[in-house]
């Protein structure tokens, strides 16, 4: 799905709705206005619905926005706004659900023509809010990384996509990932109908009676809130748009993404004059021949690369009937990749070259508590393995003391021929009070592990299945204390918290893997007993 296809789909839906309003309800007052109502309403309903499928995804995205806005406002005259963003981050789940419900409510109100003046202003203000977020994100591409605050406009330089702190807007959740620039222009476009709704709100159509419209709006809000909560409080999202969904193979997808990235070549250079802003694009060969004409003191050069691709080709001599370019040196791996890709992409042609975009799978990197990489070991486990994902261990700590038991030794001297041997012998144990962090874990959070997750994991371990937990990078002592507090008999490893939030929308959540393939995923509130899970292990 692309934004263009989505807009075409919404435009067609708006046309059908407008015809229904005219032919069935006979309520069209102004055709262009009714069409704009239905277009904006359908877009908001769809946009809100794909967010409602995964409200935590929207919450995580808003956390990123709030963190960046806090740091941007802090050194300015608007620093008094900075404390607002940590507060919003603390209540981000509630904010996410409220925003999603409000967006869908506005979409429905536009379609049925409820509270026309209020809806017009609410629509414009929400679009302004979205425009501010996407515009801020896009424009940070002009802020040199680490060298200037966003509001120091005189320090802005040439646009660099890598300077952006939030890399996608989250407008359509993970269903359709848009670059901030595209999202920003989309929101600028939506300002036009927002202004028209305010100027000509009386020309908007209205369906049903006022009481029926009110009941529809109340019912929409209530249903949306319940639906949102069902997708993260009580269970996982019923549809998974993320790359770690069931049946995806993390190991193979990671190989494909990394190989596609290495196949990218520089095809041109875009040169920007630092004084005038003039832009010139030169093919790669021309730039190499003429780069002396564009000294770095005057020109800023940016590489233009082709897209990361994977080519799959039919070859009857291959084990899978297909081959994957770049993996011919390892026939067994090539056959595994070819079988996986042909099935997933539904390939029937002789040769297919497909763009493979960078995703969070490329960032799938785990380390043990000593900092040693364990990614390959985990992704190549032949047996069914259980991965418990917890992006955050809920608890607090404070300075305190602990009592350490220290062995006391004596050295005995024993004659041995012409020499003497010294043998160390433990004579007792002494205690010593040492300064240490005292960890206090949230009781309800501990119960998720001790009463829900660990009984299932104990059964899996008895059945000889590997079990490990992965949490965000943290102090090793803190993680070990949590492991001890939950009596977890399996190892803990660490990874980036955003990666863990992407893998599963539950804390803790359980993922069943086999050689990198995702076999199953469960919210801790919906975790079945081990016997039911074992039925998946075929």
Structure description:
- 44% of the residues lie in helices and 20% in strands.
- It is α+β, with helices and mostly antiparallel strands and 538 residues long.
- The protein starts with a helix and ends with a helix.
- β1 and β2 (279-283) form a beta hairpin.
- A 5-stranded mixed β-sheet has the order 11-10-7-12-13, sandwiched between helices. It has a 3-stranded antiparallel β-sheet with strand order 2-1-3. Strands 5-4-6 form a 3-stranded antiparallel β-sheet.
Blueprint (SSEs and pairs):
Elements: H1 3-23, H2 31-53, H3 55-73, H4 84-90, H5 92-112, H6 116-139, H7 180-199, H8 210-230, H9 250-262, E1 266-273, E2 279-283, H10 284-290, E3 299-305, E4 309-314, E5 322-324, H11 331-345, E6 351-355, H12 375-379, E7 384-390, E8 395-416, E9 419-441, H13 443-462, E10 467-472, H14 476-485, E11 492-495, H15 497-503, E12 509-514, E13 517-523, H16 530-534
Parallel strand pairs: 7-10, 10-11
Antiparallel strand pairs: 1-2, 1-3, 4-5, 4-6, 7-12, 8-9, 12-13
Helix pairs in contact: 1-2, 2-5, 2-7, 3-4, 3-5, 5-6, 5-8, 6-7
């Amino acid at each position: 799905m692309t934004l263009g296809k989505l807009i075409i789909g919404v435009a067609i839906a708006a046309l059908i709705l407008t015809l229904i309003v005219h032919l069935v309800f006979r309520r069209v007052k102004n055709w262009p206005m009714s069409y704009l109502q239905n277009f904006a309403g359908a877009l908001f309903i769809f946009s809100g619905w794909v967010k409602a499928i995964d409200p935590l995804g929207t919450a995580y995205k808003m956390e990123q926005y709030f963190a960046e806005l806090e740091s941007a406002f802090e050194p300015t005259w608007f620093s008094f706004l900075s404390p607002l963003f940590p507060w919003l981050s603390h209540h981000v789940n509630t904010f996410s659900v409220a925003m999603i419900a409000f967006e869908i409510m506005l979409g429905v109100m536009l379609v049925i023509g409820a509270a026309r003046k209020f809806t017009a202003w609410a629509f414009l203000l929400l679009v302004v809010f979205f425009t501010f977020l996407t515009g801020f994100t896009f424009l940070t591409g002009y802020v040199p990384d680490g060298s200037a605050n966003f509001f120091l406009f005189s320090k802005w330089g040439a646009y660099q996509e890598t300077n952006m702190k939030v890399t996608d807007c989250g407008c359509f959740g993970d269903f359709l990932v848009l670059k901030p620039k595209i999202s920003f222009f989309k929101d600028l476009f939506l300002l036009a109908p927002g202004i028209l709704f305010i100027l000509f709100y009386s020309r908007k159509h209205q369906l049903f009676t006022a009481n029926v419209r009110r009941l529809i709006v109340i019912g929409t809000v209530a249903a949306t809130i319940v639906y949102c909560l069902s997708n993260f409080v009580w269970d996982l999202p019923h549809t998974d748009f993320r790359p770690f969904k069931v049946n995806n193979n993390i190991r193979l997808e990671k190989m494909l993404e990394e190989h596609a990235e290495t196949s990218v070549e520089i095809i041109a250079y875009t040169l920007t004059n630092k004084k005038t802003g003039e832009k010139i694009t030169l093919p790669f060969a021309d730039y190499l021949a003429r780069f002396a004409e564009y000294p770095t003191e005057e020109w800023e050069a940016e590489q233009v690369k082709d897209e990361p691709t994977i080519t799959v080709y039919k070859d009857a001599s291959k084990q899978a009937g297909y081959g994957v370019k770049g993996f011919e040196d390892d026939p067994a791996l090539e056959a595994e990749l070819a079988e996986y890709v042909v099935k997933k992409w539904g390939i029937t042609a002789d040769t297919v070259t497909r763009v493979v975009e960078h995703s969070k799978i490329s960032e799938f990197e785990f380390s043990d508590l000593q900092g040693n990489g364990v990614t390959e070991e985990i992704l190549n486990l032949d047996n069914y393995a259980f991965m418990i994902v917890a992006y955050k261990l809920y608890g607090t700590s404070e300075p305190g003391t602990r009592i350490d038991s220290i062995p006391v030794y004596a050295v005995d001297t024993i004659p041995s021929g012409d020499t003497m041997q010294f043998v160390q012998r433990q004579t007792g144990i002494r205690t010593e009070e040492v300064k240490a962090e005292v960890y206090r874990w949230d009781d309800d959070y501990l119960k998720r592990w001790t009463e829900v997750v660990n009984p299932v994991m104990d059964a899996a371990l008895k059945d000889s299945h590997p079990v490990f937990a992965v949490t965000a990078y943290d102090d090793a002592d803190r993680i070990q204390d949590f492991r001890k507090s939950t009596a977890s008999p399996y190892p803990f490893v660490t990874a980036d918290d955003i990666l863990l939030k992407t893998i599963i929308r539950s804390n803790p959540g359980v993922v069943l893997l086999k050689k990198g393939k995702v076999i199953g995923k469960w919210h801790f509130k919906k975790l079945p007993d081990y016997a039911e899970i074992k039925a998946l292990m075929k």
